Amino acid sequence: MPEKFAATRHTSSKPDDDLPELTDEMLSRAVLKQGGKRIGRPRSQSPKVAISLRLEAEVLQRWRDSGPGWQTRMAELLSKETP
After folding, report:
1. Which residues does the annotated region (Disordered) include (predicted)?
2. Is the model's pTM score more than 0.70?
3. Given pLDDT bands bounded at 50, 70 and 90, which one contains residue 8?
4. Which of 3, 7, 11, 55 has the most Cβ atoms closer than 10 angstroms to its Cβ?
């Protein structure tokens, strides 16, 4: 192990005076993980499905040019019932 990492192998039960006290605001931004996977977020009742869709370049560019949220607007339009 490189010498510069030797200090990271050491653990101590003494508090570190350089670290700030954890606040409620800090804890509210915490991301909980278990086994490398994020936990705590409920599964969606209607999860989205990834697909591949071939469109003409001009059509896709018009949607992108319409600004942020273009994917959501496209999905809303496609979900409308047609006669």
Report:
1. 1-21
2. no
3. low
4. 55
